[in-house]
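User: Predict the structure for this protein chain, please.
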Amino acid sequence: MSIPESESELILEIKYCLQNNIPYKMLGNGSNLLISDDGVDGFVINNKKACVDLFVHNDLLYCGSSVMMQQLINYCINNEFYAMEYLYSVPATVGGAVVQNAGRGKQYNKQISDYIVKVKVFDGEKIREIPKRKCRFGFRDSVFKENRDLVVLGVCFALPMQSEEIGVNAKKERMKLVRKYQDSGCANFGTVFSTANHHIMKLLRGVKIGNAGYSKKTPNWICNYGDAKAKDIVKLIKVSKLLHKFLFRSVKAEVETW
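Assistant: Here is the predicted structure, written as structure tokens:
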């Protein structure tokens, strides 16, 4: 695995892989990722240091894909922009959040793409900007998730103004909700399924295989209770999929598996 230190270094590494037919994967903070016990085939490029620009120009906020969501939100609050504070609990890079179109539950209809104007990408040959209308943002979906040849380098937001006080209070409220409803007692990768039946997921609370198990506190979460194996988590996911199939309910994984 490599950790490029600049955008130009990141692009050089991608070009090298492409020119030499080396399969590669882009990694952000890995917050919604399950990696096989056997490791990963190919080369991994960790984009956590390469694209760190964060500034305002012509009323647009530009944020590099390596910036953590918490850093972006704090910057917005300090500069009196609406900060998408509901995403403060998501331990992701901005690039990862854009690829996944991170947001709240479907009933809230809030996602990071709401205020995106355009996304800066490297397409394997050149750097270009893709306007929002061509990004095909959907619920936990985007063109960048479908086409991994488009590497997100940064994103431009058009954010409304908001007082610092409102932003600070909204962030506090978000973390208050997190402490109340989210299971912080063990490691996890957050939501397992983007689409799932709520009643089935409640039935699975506490179901364990090895040291992995569905959280007793937060439905649709799988927790690592100590040295859990990826293969056991995969089995837990399959159990849920089989239950959904048996009961004629739709289910779609949100976690990405390598």
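Residues 164-181 form the longest helix (18 residues).
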